[in-house]
Amino acid sequence: MVNTNIFLGSGASMTLVPELDFYIEPDSAPAEGHTSVTLDSSNQSEMKLVADLYVGCTLDFYASAAKQSSHTITGNTATLLTFTPSLGATVSSGYFILRSYGAPCPAPKIGSNPTLNSDNWLGLVESATFPNIEVEPKQLNLSLGGSRNFTHQYKGIETASGGTVNVMANHFAWIYYVLGNCATLTPDAETDPTDPPNYFTGLGENEVYFNTSAHLAQGPIFYRSLTSSRLFTPPLLPVDFTGKANIRLLTLPTTTSTLITYTFTEAEGDDLPSFALEQTLTKNPLELTSDGTNDETFVRIARGNRVNDISLSANENEEVKLAMNLNSRAVHTVKEGYEARRGITDNTALFNYNTELDAFSDPFFYSGGTLSAFGQTFLKITNMTLTINNNLQDKRFLGSGSKSVKSAIPAQRDYEVTFTGMITDDSLYTALTTDSEYATDGSSNLLTLTFTKGSESMTLNLKDYLLNAATITIPEDKGPITLEGTIKPRSLQSCSVKTHWILQG
Fold first, then answer.
1. Quick check: 218 pLDDT over 50?
2. Model pTM greater than 0.85?
């Protein structure tokens, strides 16, 4: 039967899927020459992988907690990953870690259908563009002549591009993705639970855990225990399970006294954090199961999204806004039975949507911000924009496993602050004509941007900066004289975000 009902925009949604290092315990002992690994039965009973979703991802092999080799995934079924090159010398025991970049975090299956940790709310989305696929066409002749028409054509490389997310900022955890590292994590409230029994199982349903002493930089920053089986999503990494005495149970942010403070820092390497986006088109918002026919529910997954640049803007009498341009690794169309949004049909039930305190969902406003620079706090700023640009470059490598898989390599990091304000004195013009940088010692005269909303806040300090443009405008109506300025910092001093947002990585 042909389905003639069309998809409507009212049935479209977009959610976030964390991309996290994923521990894989093999079902049988790895051996020399192996080119595949099957998930352990502890995982198989609760979880299924989305077929071929992980092509091109990196799979690291460990023995005795020491990394032995790195491999590229060439394909995957619901329970098996194939990779290249083959394993080297036989070891007595070993395990694998699926690295985060381009690897959406699986979640417990629903019925017989695989699903992802895709019930993460994006926030107050003003607009968003799902990355689109562009395919390079190739046309040529099979001989020197014979016809004015090409006699052969084929498809070249695929490129995913054009992804954007623009939100009214009800939190500033997004800054993590452009800076690259989480240095510290300090919850207002936590408890010391009983040690987890194994890598896969938490202690209660719908709880959140973290390790006080292990890795933080790019996650998993938090682990979720989901469904009645209490499955860790993702499974605990060996470093966390070995030190499980350091595992803490997060007191979920439901009041202003149960917030989380993050310290974000600059990542100097090429391994920036990433996330996936799940786009769901459905003709029935209460039915999120894709059966592979695409008649009722159509699901695409854009994976390996790194933030190329982010613009934080605060304009007079408006909400604070964050605009992000993404660099996407690949787009995967789900062609099998799959449960979109982890089966969550009600937007208010999405993870990080807080039903306990409405203020958590409200945006920050221009009126709650301050900008300090050149040793003074500017009270007459009418609008400002902070832009952080990673200048990501697309690269492709031998053995990536797919024509669609690419990597985003960061180049020179760039900061810029533009603002418009009313002139109160000649200090800014003096700064324009000064040759030396401000805040070179990182301790005084910092460029400081702060926003507060109740108990939530963001403080970002930049150093080593110059004022490189200042345009003074005298209006025709003889009203306030304004100055349009551009400040160019070289580096970050510190960034602290106190928020209700639970950032998995």
1. yes
2. yes
